[in-house]
Each structure stands twice: as structure tokens, then as C-alpha cells.
Design a protein that fits this description.
Distance between the termini: 17 Å
Order of helices and strands: EHEHEHEHE
Strand order of the largest sheet: 2-1-3-4-5
Strand content: 15-25%
Shape: globular
């Protein structure tokens, strides 16, 4: 599992994940801050990474668009708003567990919710 974190998630989460041997980059680290949602998901696809975000509605819509347009897609993992964004270790732990359950990554065009 390779993650690409949206800008609504702290790059500290990516740092924590890498220390736990999970392949993760953040929008903040690749100079994609303030890119459109479409550009973000295109970058995740280009890098063959699962996109991780708290922005549920827009990325569900974009996933359907990618599917209909046959654009490569490596999954979207949504962090629910019930998990506060400032709980970096908690989010990272949940992402580590998810990565261990999905070592080969998500199926194309999959949207899942982190529990």
C-alpha cells in the first residue's frame, strides 16, 4: 500500500508512517498545496498511490468520473470527521493497520472509509 495524503491532513502523519515503514508522501511535500481536487487525484494516479483525504463528497464524485472516463485510479481512503485531524498518531496507526490489511493496495476505483 502506498499513500498520498491530501492537504487537509498534516504532513506529520506521513512522517510517522514512514518511520513505521509505510510508503507515504504528502501533498505538502511535493508542492501540490492548493491544487484542485482533480489535480490531486491525477497526481495520486500518476504515482500509483491511494489518495487519503477527509474530503468525502468531492473524491467520491471524482472516483465515479475517473471510472467513467477510464482514467487510472488506485483508490481513495476517506478519514471520517469523527477522527479529529489533529490526532496524528491515531490517524497514522489506523493507516498502518489498513496498509497491513491491504499490502497490494486497493482495487482500482475503490472508495473506502477508515474505521
Amino acid at each position: 500500500m502506498k499513500y498520498y495524503l491530501d492537504e487537509d491532513l498534516s504532513p506529520k502523519i506521513a512522517e510517522i508512517l514512514r518511520k513505521q515503514n509505510v510508503d507515504c508522501i504528502s501533498v505538502h511535500e511535493v508542492s501540490m498545496i492548493q491544487a484542485s481536487d482533480l489535480e490531486q487525484l491525477m497526481m495520486a494516479a500518476k504515482k500509483k498511490r491511494c489518495f487519503v483525504t477527509k474530503n468525502r463528497d468531492d473524491f467520491i464524485r471524482l472516483t465515479v468520473q475517473f471510472f467513467n472516463d477510464h482514467i487510472p485510479h488506485y483508490g481513495v481512503l476517506i478519514i471520517p470527521y469523527t477522527i479529529p485531524g489533529d490526532q496524528f498518531p491515531r490517524i497514522a496507526d489506523k493507516l498502518v493497520n489498513y496498509a497491513h490489511k491491504h499490502p497490494e493496495g486497493m482495487m482500482p476505483y475503490t472508495v473506502d472509509f477508515l474505521s
